Amino acid sequence: MEYKKPLGVKIEENGVIPGAKKLVRRLSDMKGYFLDEEAYEELLKEDPVVYEVYAVEQEEKDGDLNFATTVLYPGKVGKEFFFTKGHFHARADRAEIYYGIKGKGGMLLQTPEGEVEWIPMEPGTVVYVPPYWAHRTVNTGDEPFIFLAIYPADAGHDYGSIKEKGFAKLVIEEDGEVKLVDNPRWKE
Ligand SMILES: O=P(O)(O)OC[C@H]1O[C@H](O)[C@H](O)[C@@H](O)[C@@H]1O
Ligand SMILES: [Fe+2]
Prior knowledge:
Helices cover 7% and strands 40% of the residues. The protein has two helices and 13 strands; from the N terminus they run E-H-E-E-E-E-E-E-E-E-E-E-H-E-E. The protein binds 6-O-phosphono-alpha-D-glucopyranose (G6P) and fe (ii) ion (FE2).
């Protein structure tokens, strides 16, 4: 039997996992994701980084685990707070655990039928993402929102239906408050 080597890493203050694979998502990578297209085009001139992911991933095998930090920057497109694209798992029955490290935000979760849940997150919050729920994180604060996610190595990402239909709710700022409102573009 060939055993894999155990691994311990310290997450840096800024959310970076040393040696991890880095993925950067800029606003230009998220065309069609935000409701306010005019505000999107305007902010595109700067094309800010919306989030970075630092992932330590194994081969896609049953039983193994991946982990990743996300650094989700503060910002808005119109009234809508910056968020991660959001996905179902390609193997839809795979669950996931998130752990809040820094900053303030929350997670939008949604079933294939469009039932939505919002879970606020701050440092120390653990979120259980059950099988079959799509999930997207949102930064509702004014500093980077940093969290850790642990997920089955064979979970995979299915962006398709979220990219097309979005979530049934938007997370916006209105009158200085964080609000969840119906997404006018949501389709069943
Ligand atoms: O893949 P997104 O929906 O853009 O979310 C960004 C990332 O968030 C977390 O770090 C998850 O563990 C990753 O699997 C995911 O890729
Ligand atoms: Fe996931």
